């Protein structure tokens, strides 16, 4: 009986706890998508998980400080080196890029994606609310939700993606005439500028898509 139940369990997902992020709503949303969720920064748990989610709210520099305090950049890099899935959300998406510039001050990111997070060139900031996106060709995250709206809360984003690898799937959005990167899918790494856990049925479907792509170990 135990063995049969083990075969039916959902993928194990670690929600990285580094002092920044909407942990509880993200945990509930991931559990509803079929994952067994643990909130921790324990290196062994992070390494063993079927999927790692990096959340983030607030300022780029503060999130990076928190991430560095739990050795987050190395934990993320080690998983990606082993082709183990990682999902970044909001500032957890932003910190995956080379750097972020806020109030004229540049901070170093995880340097996985090439690119700079900068202030949007829009009259109305912050960008708060629902917005459509334009998924890149071959996107798996946006399967069945390509025409839906997602919930954004931000004033900063990546506005140029020329340096991203050619095999990266880039999804775009636009706010007040300014175009920015809304999501990236590249190998085992995926990330979204919006909050799927706050995006209703569309966000739930997107998280299902990601969780369903995970292969439980054992």
TrEMBL record:
Which InterPro entries has this protein been placed in? Class_I_gatase-like, GATASE, Imidazole-glycPsynth_HisH
Highest taxon of the lineage: Bacteria
* Name the record gives this protein: Imidazole glycerol phosphate synthase subunit HisH
Question: What cellular component terms from Gene Ontology apply here?
Answer: cytoplasm
The GO terms this record gives for MF are: glutaminase activity; imidazoleglycerol-phosphate synthase activity; lyase activity
The keyword Ribonucleoprotein is annotated on this UniProt entry: no
Which keywords appear in this protein's UniProt record, sorted alphabetically?
A: Amino-acid biosynthesis, Cytoplasm, Glutamine amidotransferase, Glycosyltransferase, Histidine biosynthesis, Hydrolase, Lyase, Transferase
| Single Gene Ontology BP annotation | L-histidine biosynthetic process
Hydrolase as a keyword of this entry, yes or no, is yes
| E.C. number | 4.3.2.10, 3.5.1.2
Assembly and partners are described as: Heterodimer of HisH and HisF.
Kindly report the protein's main subcellular placement as a broad class.
cytoplasm
Q: Which gene encodes it?
A: hisH
Residues at the active site: 90 (nucleophile), 195, 197
Please give the organism. Naumannella cuiyingiana
Main function: IGPS catalyzes the conversion of PRFAR and glutamine to IGP, AICAR and glutamate. The HisH subunit catalyzes the hydrolysis of glutamine to glutamate and ammonia as part of the synthesis of IGP and AICAR. The resulting ammonia molecule is channeled to the active site of HisF.
Q: What is the lineage of its organism?
A: Bacteria, Bacillati, Actinomycetota, Actinomycetes, Propionibacteriales
Residues covered by the Glutamine amidotransferase domain = 14-210
């Amino acid at each position: 009986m135990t063995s049969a139940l083990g075969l039916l369990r959902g993928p194990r997902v670690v929600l990285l706890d580094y002092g920044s992020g909407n942990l509880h709503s993200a945990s509930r949303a991931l559990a509803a998508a079929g994952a067994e969720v643990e909130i921790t920064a324990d290196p062994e748990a992070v390494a063993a998980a079927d999927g790692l989610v990096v959340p983030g709210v607030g300022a780029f520099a503060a999130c990076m400080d928190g991430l560095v305090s739990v050795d987050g950049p190395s934990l993320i890099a080690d998983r990606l080196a082993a082709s183990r899935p990682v999902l970044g959300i909001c500032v957890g998406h932003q910190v995956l890029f080379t750097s972020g510039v806020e109030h004229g001050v540049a901070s170093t990111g995880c340097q996985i994606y090439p690119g700079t997070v900068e202030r949007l060139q829009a009259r109305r900031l912050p960008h708060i609310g629902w917005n459509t996106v334009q998924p890149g060709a071959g996107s798996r995250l946006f399967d069945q939700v390509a025409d839906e709206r997602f919930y954004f809360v931000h004033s900063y984003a990546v506005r140029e993606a020329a340096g991203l690898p050619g095999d990266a799937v880039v999804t775009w959005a636009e706010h007040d005439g300014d175009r920015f990167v809304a999501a990236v899918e590249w190998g085992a790494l995926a990330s979204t500028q919006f909050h799927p856990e706050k995006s209703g049925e569309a966000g739930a479907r997107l998280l299902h898509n990601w969780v369903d792509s995970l292969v439980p170990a054992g």
